[in-house]
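Request: Show me your protein:
***
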Amino acid sequence: MSVKSAATDHPIHPLLAERWSPYAFADRPVSEADLRSLFEAARWAPSSYNEQPWRFIVARREDGPAFEDLLSCLVPTNQVWAKAAPVLALGIVSLRFERNGKENRAAVHDLGLAAGNLSIEATSRGLAVHQMIGIDPERARAFYAIPEDCEAWTGWAIGHRGDPDRLPESHRDRDRAPRQRKPLGELVFGERFGEPAPFVGRRSES
């Protein structure tokens, strides 16, 4: 299947360079052992005050109606391709601190850290994760009785990369296209917002 290692400007860990989010997934299940390790990796992500404000709802294709329920919580344009993934998940955030009931402004950030851990663990196991913001949070709330102080924030498709030729035409080119990122100079600033930090233009000597 497609391999799209990042063409980085500076050295990074190979797993970070290899990770990308395919639309095409193979018709091949993910083992329970792999799933346990993926969510174990997410469990050990850092979080503000160690609150661990993330929760996950997971359904495998072999779960039948449960998979269809979770699939229906994605927006229709994501259902088109995500229905082929062997595993779907929702990332839920608790928006208030358990310790004092105050708003947790770090909750979504912390869910992202957990998702990052999971994605890299998946890459190390030859799996791929495609994260999506295109979900219906209120439909998810109704299906899964999500408490009012929590919210479904993201959807995830998890599995082995598949053949882009099996995708709808609208998505094939996305899986084949080279990966791109903005240069560091547009992202890392120094004395003033928008002005590149002095070090970002220098290439690593290692």
